[in-house]
Amino acid sequence: MVDSLKKPTFEEIRPGVKVPAKETILTPRFYTTDFEEMEKMDISANEEEIRAILEEFRVDYNRHHFVRDEEFEQSWDHIDGETRKVFVEFLERSCTAEFSGFLLYKELSRRLKEKSPVLAECFLLMSRDEARHAGFLNKALSDFNLSLDLGFLTKSRKYTFFKPKFIFYATYLSEKIGYWRYIKIYRHLEAHPEDRIYPIFRFFENWCQDENRHGDFFDAILKSQPSLLNDWKARLWCRFFLLSVFATMYLNDLQRADFYAAIGLNARDYDIEVIEKTNETAGRVFPIILNVNHPSFYQRLDECVKTNEKLSAIANSNAPGFVKFFQKLPHYISNGWQFLNLYLLKPINVEPSHGVVR
Ligand SMILES: [Fe+2]
Ligand SMILES: [Fe+2]
Fold first, then answer.
1. Residue 268 located in a structural domain
2. Any idea where the Rubrerythrin diiron-binding domain is (predicted)?
3. Which ligand is nearest to the CA of 131?
């Protein structure tokens, strides 16, 4: 059959179950933390806001949202070749990221249940949302005759340990950037329905509201812990996490520009908009934001993109491991240098604007 010739093949654990993408510094991570420290956290400084968000979570606005309708029930074989490959990769990446959120929030809700019931319920309800998101994406993969074995992922992936405060910076940003990513795609396809090649994007509008609420929860948590926001260390960490989250997305997306092109988006322009918006949003809680309009900001990121292309060419070559290592080394140093320079770019102090209604 001609169709099957055009279809890219994916490695499978067993028929229809995809071998998970190789873990790299850029793939979504699974996290664990110090649960005892989190349990002892005093949230009373902002408990009212946290309880209000819990009420929102309880309402469960998207209870009936994630239902596959008849538009899914057709053959997707016409999405073929390179587009199919990048499409499947997009679904897998998104599913893994959502599932990673589910695992972390679920575990937090379990561990905090006794000593911190308000937080435990918030985490439980967020894990409910993430489970839906991951499940919906995994179901979408099945339209391409693949799926992820999430149980296998749970057991086989490495977990990165982050102290609670780092979990808060990182999850706050990943929820907010997730919101902007989903809504930007949704708005673009709303204006250009001819580019909506698959129905899942129609669901992004309500979906991103879940991420926005999750982000608001972490915003409220951060505000309940002033020490995470008001000293020089907080400023340095906020800078670090903003840059890490932006750079990771940028490098990932530019490597997969074909996916964005398939839905009529220019990956670079899309990322610049998402970074702009997320940076602005972060300014409502972080004391500083990055100077993303500085001429060297994207110049340096673009250098890293080029370096990464060279790195993946080396990784895909047939040279022996130690040769590859020495070939890669100067590129790692170059990326490290760019990252350091980006980190040292003077940030924008936004503290004075806090509390001002915008
Ligand atoms: Fe999600
Ligand atoms: Fe989320």
1. no
2. 89-221
3. 1
Per-residue pLDDT tens over the stretch 158-179: 899 999 999 999 999 999 999 9
Ligand 2 midpoint to CA 77 (Å)? 31
Gap from CA of 57 to ligand 1 centroid (Å): 13
185 Cα–ligand 1 center, Å:
15
Cβ contacts of 279 within 8 Å, gap of 6 or more = 242, 246, 289, 290, 292
Compute the distance from residue 133 Cα to the ligand 1 centre, in Å: 5
Q: Are residues 244 and 341 in the same domain?
A: yes
Q: Which two tokens mark 356?
A: 């001002």
93 and 180 both lie in a single domain: yes
Range of the structural domain that residue 108 is part of: 1-227
Domain assignment present for 336: yes
Is there a single domain that holds both residue 186 and residue 289? no
Is the residue at 269 inside a domain? no
The Å distance, Cα 99 to ligand 1 centre, comes to: 8
Cα distance between the two ends of the chain: 59
Shared-domain flag, residues 218 and 248: no
- Centre of ligand 1 from the C-alpha of residue 70, in Å: 23
User: From ligand 2's centre to the CA of 150, what distance in Å?
Assistant: 17
CA separation for the pair 347, 358 (Å, rounded): 21
How many whole angstroms from 40 Cα to the centroid of ligand 2? Answer: 24
User: Ligand 1 centroid to 59 CA: how many Å?
Assistant: 17
Give residue-wise pLDDT tens across range 253-307.
999 999 999 999 999 999 999 999 999 999 999 999 999 999 999 999 999 999 9
Whole-prediction pTM value?
0.93
Statement to judge: residues 330 and 207 lie in one domain: no
Same domain, yes or no: 245 and 202: no
- Claim to verify: residue 197 and residue 284 sit in the same structural domain: no
249-252's contacts with Cβ under 8 Å and 24+ in sequence apart are 249/177, 249/181, 249/274, 249/275, 250/275, 250/301, 250/304, 250/305, 251/26, 251/301, 251/304, 251/305, 251/308, 252/26, 252/93
Proximal ligand: closest to the CA of 104: 2
Residues 280, 205 within the same domain: no
